[in-house]
Amino acid sequence: MDVLALYGLLVLTTLPPLVPNSALLVTTGVLAARGEVFLPLILLIVGGSALLGGLLMYLAARRFGAPVRAWMRRKPRREALLEWTSRRIQRYGLPFVIAIRFLPSGRITGALACGVLRYPVRKYVLGAGIAEATWATYSVGLGYLGSATTGRPLYAAGIGFGVSCAVAAVGAAIQWAARRRTLREPSEASGEGESGGTSKGGDGETGEGWGGRASSAAT
């Protein structure tokens, strides 16, 4: 494959969310170990494309908060997951903005929740930048280190892809457990309504649902 075409393919598969490209990233790492592509440039392209995609989702959610909230509420599980994410963004701040990236669909969930909450853009870019740099290094590094140590590109690619799948499975299990726990919790909105919209939620926030959290995060 032409090097420029490979760079373009990396951008096209990394910029939009939910495009599976783990095998491509591991393979690119193998090519970097063989000297066919420049590793720092690959990391810059992968990390930069992922950060740009996340930032676009954040800005869209920040600008069009009402339609995004309506979309969130279409499915109870999706709404519960995003409510859980928003509470922990407010509670833990930047560390959770970084950590949410490594859960399944966390790139989308974290960006949308931060946007709706009007989380400070500089803090979001910092957190997302750290997360995407770590993710790019890990994803490409699996193929690079595997090929450098074994000397067998196909073997290295298989190991790297297998490790990626295992990590994704662990993240999915954590997310599933967290979502079930959230669904079992009493409805936070009903408790706030009984107190005139000023009572504290389960994690200590005040306000009315997404609106109260948005004003809190903006400060």
Indicate the percent of residues in helices: over 70%
The overall pLDDT average reads 77
How many helices? The count is 11
Write the element-wise H/E pattern from the N-terminal end onward. Answer: HHHHHHHHHHH
Beginning-to-end CA distance, first to last residue: 49 Å
Question: Judging from the principal axes of the Cα atoms, what is the shape?
Answer: elongated
Major sheet summary line: none
Poorly predicted parts: 186-219
The assigned structural class equals mainly alpha
Number of strands: 0
Walk me through this protein's architecture.
By secondary structure, the chain is an all-alpha fold. The protein is built from eleven helices and no strands. 78% of the residues lie in helices and 0% in strands. The longest helix has 32 residues, at 153-184. The chain is elongated, with a radius of gyration of 19 Å.
Key terms:
219 residues, mainly alpha, 11 helices, disordered C terminus
Task: Record the SSE blueprint.
Layout lengths: L2 H12 L7 H12 L5 H25 L1 H8 L3 H17 L1 H6 L6 H11 L4 H30 L2 H32 L3 H7 L14 H10 L1
What is the compact description of this entry?
This protein has eleven helices and no strands. The protein is mainly alpha-helical and 219 residues long.
